[in-house]
Amino acid sequence: MQESKEDLDILLIDDHHMIMEGYKNVISKAKIFSALNFNIEMADNCEYAWEKIKTGNYSVVFLDINFPVLEDSKIHSGEDLGVRIKTEFPEIKIIILTVLEDHFRIFNILSNIQPDGFLIKGETTSKELIHCLEKVLYSPPYYGSKISNLLRSGVAQKSSIDEIDRVMLYQLSLGTKTKDIPKYVNLSLRAVEDRKKKLKDVFGVRGEGNKALLEKARESGYI
Amino acid sequence: MIKYVLFLFNKESNFATHILEFLKLKFYFLLVILLSFLSCKKDTGDAEMLTKATDSITAHIDSSKNKKIDFLERKENLQEAYNLINKIKKDSLKKPHYLDLVYAYYQLPDTSRFLELNNQVLELAKTTNDSVVIAKCYWRLGNFYSDIQNKNDSAFYYYNKGQEIYWLIGNKFDAARLLINMAIIQKNIKDYTGSEITTTKAIAMLKPLKGYGELYSSYNNLGIVFNELGEYDRAIYYHRKALEYIEKSGLTNRVPGSLNNIGVVYVNQKKYSNAIQNFEQGLEQDSLFVSDTELYAMLLDNLAYARFKSKDTTAELPSIFYKALSIRDSLQNHYGVTTSKLHLAEYFLNKNDTIKGIEYAREVQELSRQSNNFKDLLSSLLILSTADKDNALTYTNEYIKINDSLQKEERAIRNKFARIQFETDEYISKANRLNQQISQTSFISAGIILVIILLYIISNQRAKNKLIKQKQTANQEIYNLVIDQQKKFEEGRDIEKQYISRELHDGILGKLFGIRLNLDSLNEEDDSQSKKERFKYIREIQKISDQIRLLSHRLNKTSLSNVNFETVLEELIKSQNAGTIKFHIEFKESINWDTIDNNIKINIYRVLQEAISNIHKHSKATEARIEFENLNDQLIIGITDNGIGFSPEKTKNGIGLGNMFARVKKIKGKITISSLGENRKGTTIKLTVPFN
Predict the structure, then answer these.
(1) For B327-362, what is each residue's pLDDT tens digit?
(2) What per-residue confidence (pLDDT) applies to A71?
(3) A214: number of Cβ within 10 Å
């Protein structure tokens, strides 16, 4: 006789099948979820995943951020998909699993999706994955150690990059000198320098020059 | 009246040097002939004959001058010399001998023969435009008319003509000598102002040339002129100057003459003791009697006259007068004789010996009438008109008549002279103007040439600058092309880097994460199924290491980015492949582009661009091939397509083709376009460019 178990639909979204296989193996073999009857499905691209979400009845979604860009794809990244899920299916719990370690992206994801779980693939073990799922199911959210450290550091408060920051970054990328920036933004030089310092914190760069900052900003798609 | 001492320049010292020069010239000429025709016996014979002829001509002329030989024999010698000269074939070789001969005849003297030959030489010289010889002939004619014919106007005319030629050919020295001769003639016809002017002209020319002998003659003439004009102090001054120049020139034999002339002035000034002193000093000169007997007689006569005038009773007068007269008589010196006799007439009249006085005066009248010596004739008439009271009226009438006609004649001659000189002055000033014009013209043309040279230099510099600029532009363009290429490469490398980075981050890390997760989950299992699965993941790791190796290889490739002109060309061709035409590029040999001038490279690049654009626009080809070949230091580029072709001769004027031709020409290359025409297939452009 078997105890009747609660069904739980899970959608794994990652472009690497091996990873999804790994999630599936880890989750299905986890003993603490014996009361649950996992119904695990996979999608290796966002488009397909979105179709499945719209038609399916998933409780949890494991979502990767980086996907190879497909030509006719309307959803470019896991982040876009996450936002859609969050707005259209707010009841679905989202666990972000990414290799990204870029502070700025992480803050963005945090603020845009407000995922229930957030893990950095590099530091994630099977145990942590199980622990995360458990937490997400019963007392979300769960953030991996790097994420929580980041959140604790307080950088998050200053992490928002507004229009003025974008103009500043743009001007700097054109080669405009810091002392000339006040011509383009309605700020004093002092304020501009403060903002630049903050941006450096946000992008996690050190040192005096603009080069590292601009590189980071370019990488993050701000320029 | 007193006879002056004056020297017309009929001495041929200068002429002798001319002859020497001619002989020298001839010597060289012969030497040349001897050397150049050594192999040819006949010519050598001719030359020998010529030398012989020259020798015997000289011998004949020399013996004609030997006064010990009979006059007729001497004349025959000259005739012989003349015959020998005529045998010489070349006119140029004849001339110097003729000149020699002419002078010999003059000295002989055989005036008719002299005149004949001189005219002959003159004609010869005129046909060959030999100014030196022409001037010489005129000079001799002048001497002839002045000394022998006593025709002052003719003499003046020829001297003037000679002077004119010397002046024109720049021989100022001889021109001045002839001017002095002219001045003396002017003085002789009492054109004292004219004489003064002419002499001054001669002095101005002579002073820078340091012709001391000639300057003496000039000042001597001036002294005489001023004596005649009654300006005795000036006359003395000029004579003293003349003496100074005698000293400078070393012509000491002229001293007694000069002293004589000074004495004459003192006589006129009635300073008889001064006059006597000068005359005596003149007579004291060594062996004057032998060297210049005439002058000796003159000094003697003048001394006697001065003593007579000074009322010196101690002197043995009139024996000194007689001594001078007898010397002059023996010399057949007519002028001297009449002068002496005039002095004697005056002396005896003064001593109240009227008969003797009149007798001498009559003798003078007779002699001077014969020799056309009007000056002494007039003096004698003057004396007779006062001494011979019975015939005084006749003498006076004759005097007036002769004096009038003489004055008329002199006036006429003076006018003639003035005319001759005016014409010469006119001629010379014309020549001067011409010279001025010539110098002006040459100045202007020198200026123009200078300007042209300057312009040439400037344009040359400009062309050079242009070339440098062109080169710079070419360098710049090549540099830009390479930089562009470099940029493209860098962009490509950046994309590649991003790709590798993403691949590492997302692909490898992701896969490793998956494997780790899977192995993690299989960790606690020990069944055979799990073992199998573990093995599967181990194989996956193997795959990842392969992938890493691949990435590493790719990373290696991207760092290799050596951009040169070849890559630029490759990129140009590759970038054409977006359309329907397939472009191929091939380098058959390796070409060291670095050693090739950038100007060549950029032009090749532009020609290729043009050709490719033509293929795109007109050819309708499906394939095009660009080949580079390196053949004997020449770059051969073939551009072939399989399009519809065209008729090159019809389209030659198209701007595109024109540009191509111009560019190829600029780098000294050749271009041939062969197309099979409208209805057939394909176009081939062959470009041959030398590397340097």
Answers:
(1) 998 988 888 899 999 999 998 888 888 888 899 999
(2) 67
(3) 18
* Closest by Cα among B320, B318, B316, B314 to B299: B320
B220's enclosing H/E stretch is helix B212-228
| Structural class in CATH, domain B565-690 | alpha beta
Structure-token pair, residue B502 = 């993403």
- Using the Cβ of B538 and the Cβ atoms of chain A, whether some distance falls under 8 Å is answered with no
Between strands B683-690 and B634-641, the pairing is antiparallel
Angle at B543 between CA B542 and CA B544, to 5 degrees: 90
Restricting to B residues 488-517, those with a Cβ less than 8 Å away from any Cβ of A are: 502, 505-507, 509-511, 513-517
Burial (CB count <10 Å: 0-12, 13-18, 19+), residue B300? buried
Smallest Cα distance from A126 to chain B, Å: 6
Distance from the A25 Cα atom to the nearest Cα atom in chain B, whole angstroms: 6
- Do the domains B332-432 and B1-149 match in fold? yes
> So what's the architecture of A161-219 in CATH?
Orthogonal Bundle (1.10)
Per-residue CA distances from B494 to A100, B411, B499 (Å): 20, 119, 8
Fold classified for A6-155: Rossmann fold (3.40.50)
pLDDT tens across A124-138, in order? 888 888 899 998 988
Percentage of chain A beyond pLDDT 70 is 90
Residue with tokens 């001799």: B140
- Residues 106-145 on A with a CB inside 8 Å of B are 121-122, 124-127, 129
Q: What residue ranges do the domains of chain B occupy?
A: 1-149, 332-432, 446-559, 565-690
The Cα A64–Cα A18 span in angstroms is: 13
CATH architecture of B1-149: Alpha Horseshoe (1.25)
What is the full DSSP assignment across B387-454?
A: H-GGGHHHHHHHHHHHHHHHHHHHHHHHHHHHHHHHHHHHHHHHHHHHHHHHHHHHHHHHHHHHHHHH
Separation in Å, CA of B517 to nearest CA in chain A: 5
| Stated pTM of the model | 0.47
